[in-house]
Design a protein that fits this description.
With 277 residues, the chain is an alpha/beta fold. The protein contains nine helices and eight strands. It has two domains: 118 residues, 3-Layer(aba) Sandwich (Rossmann fold), CATH 3.40.50; 158 residues, Rossmann fold (3-Layer(aba) Sandwich). The longest helix is centred in the C-terminal third of the chain and has 19 residues. It is globular and about 55 Å long. About 2% of the residues have low confidence.
Amino acid sequence: MSTSNYTIYLASDSLSFLEPESITKLAASHFADCRYELIKFPNVKTSQKAAEIVQQVKRSVPTLLVFSTALTEVRDTFLIKSLEANVQCIDLLSPVIKSLGQVLKRAPVYNIDYSWQLSDEYYRRTHAIEFAINNDDGKSLNSLQKADIILIGVSRTSKTPLSIYLAYHSYLVINIPLVSERSIPQNFYRVSSKKVIGLTINPNRLNEIRTERNTAMGLNTESSYSDLNNIINELEFADAIMKKVGCPIIDVTNNAVEETAEKIMKLINIKRRNSHE
């Protein structure tokens, strides 16, 4: 087996890397035939800095971003921006804190220098983000009934970043890629259409996005994934499914994630109000 080279980026909200670095190096030791470079970012205390780090990580492939922070805005930025940029990232601290809280049946107490908000809203948001990550691309089909929002659309219509953005606003979101009938969960059609939002995009724009994606991944830019005729067929199939469900359809071609998310939240809240009238 040939030796592989990769980069691990390590970010912390403090000047110390002792624990995160030890854990990361221990994990890397299980791949002794691969060489890695470790790049550290200390004292990351703003969302802007976290977003800049993700953009730097994005330019290095293969790579892994490992972060340890007790600052909720920084953590959420790492998660959201990493998903948007398709960067593999690991949050070292939150899972341990959550598990300890469950074991001890109490909320954690943090240093006053940290900005964790121990409110019901914080726990709802954390649960929603975990829910979105665990249900990205329809991985878990048992959560359809629990979801507040189900996003459907072809690949690269911003389903994942939208899921995380909406989760940040405490919505439980599942996204389902519309590739073929087999890609659709069997019980999907039994779920209330009031939860479902369809996403579409201009085929030429999608062709550009997928071609850029193939280039970034070092793949063939003329694959069926980025072929314009194939894209048109995918969009027509997705449109037929959306019309069958009877859900609203949002064109994301010229929309930022935040703009599309605002439209989705407005639609979902209107549906909720109407269902209670």
